[in-house]
Amino acid sequence: MTLASPPSSVVSTRILDRTEVARDVILLGIEAPELVEKVRPGHFAMALLPGGQAAGVALGIYEARGERCSLLFFIAGDRTRRLGALRVGEMLDIVAPLGNGFDCGGKARDIAIVAGGVGIASVLLPAQAFLARGARVRLFYGARTAERLVEAERFATEGCDLSIATDDGSRGHHGVVTELLAREPAPEAILACGPTPMLRAVSAYAQERNVPAQLSLEEAFGCGVGGCWGCVVPIIGSSAQAPSFPPSDADGSDVVHARVCVEGPVFWAHELRW
Ligand SMILES: Cc1cc2nc3c(=O)[nH]c(=O)nc-3n(C[C@H](O)[C@H](O)[C@H](O)COP(=O)(O)OP(=O)(O)OC[C@H]3O[C@@H](n4cnc5c(N)ncnc54)[C@H](O)[C@@H]3O)c2cc1C
Ligand code: FES
Question: Domain 9-98 is in which class?
Answer without folding.
Answer: mainly beta
